[in-house]
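sorry for the late reply, my laptop died twice this morning and i had to redo everyting from scratch. anyway the thing you sent over, i finally got around to it. pasting the sequence first so we're on the same page, its 278 residues, then the predicted structure underneath. double check i copied it right bc i was rushing
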Amino acid sequence: MTVEQWESVRAALPEAGGRFADLLTGVPDPHQRSLGEWSIAETAAHVGMIALMYTAMIRGDGGPLPLPGLADPIDAVSVDSIAGLNALALELYPERNPLRLAERLRADIAEVLVVSADLDPGKPVWWLGGSRVPVAGVLAHLVNELLIHGLDIARAAGQPWRIPARLEAMFVELFLFGMVSGGTGHLLDDATPSPRRIAVEFRSAYTRPAVLALQHGQLRLEKPDGTADVRLRFDPAVLVPMMFGRISKLRAVLLGGVRIGGPRPWLLPEFLRTVRMP
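ok and here's the structure:
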C-alpha cells in the first residue's frame, strides 16, 4: 500500500459518488427496472445501504452496525447466498426517494472519508463472509459499487455512463488482491474445491503484476515467476464489469479488454467457476 494509492482511492470515492448522485437525481422514472427485479430506486438504495454500513464497518472495531440485524448474516454469507443478504438489507433500508437517496449517499460517503482519514489504509477489517479486506480495499469496493450500479441505472434510464479504467484498477489491486491477502473467509465455501492448482497471472497498464493461485478452494496471492497456467492482460474497465456480468466474456475478448494466454489457458473457466463475484 502506497501513499499515492491511498490518496487516489480517497479522491475516487467522492468523484464516483458525485457522479452517481447526479445520475440518480436526473432519472425520469425511479420505478423503471434496472437490475433483475430491482427498480432504479432499489438499486440506488442497495448502494446507499452499503455506504451507510461502511461508515461503521470501516473502523474495524466490532462496534454496532447502523442497520441492526445484519451482523450475523454478513458474517455467514457466501458468494452464492448473497442475494438473501441483499434482500434483507433492502428491507432494513427503506428509503426509495431518488433525491433523498442521493443526499444520504453524499453524506455517508463524506462520513466514510472522515472515519477512515486517520486509519492505516492497509489495516484488515471484517467484511462479508468473515473475510478480511484492507481499509483502502473497502473504499475501492464502494467505488466499484458506484460504478457498476451506476451503469445499471444509466442503462435503464437510457443515459451514458463511463467507467474509468484507473478507478476499476483500484478494485482489482486494493480490494480483490487485498482480500485474498487478508483471507476470503467463507465467501467461496459453496464452490466445489478442486485439488488441481491453477495459477492465473494478472497484468494491466494500471496495476502491478500479480498471480492468484487456486487450490482446494483456497486462494493465494503470489508474485509472478513465469510459471502461471494462464496469463491475463486486461483493461480494468472491461475485466471488472465482465466479472460482475455486465459485459459477456466473449465481448470482453472481442473488445480486446481481456487477452488470454499462457501454457494452459483452458484452465481459466475452472478458475472462474470458483473465483467469481456476487
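The mean pLDDT is 95.
thats about all i looked at so far, will dig more tmrw
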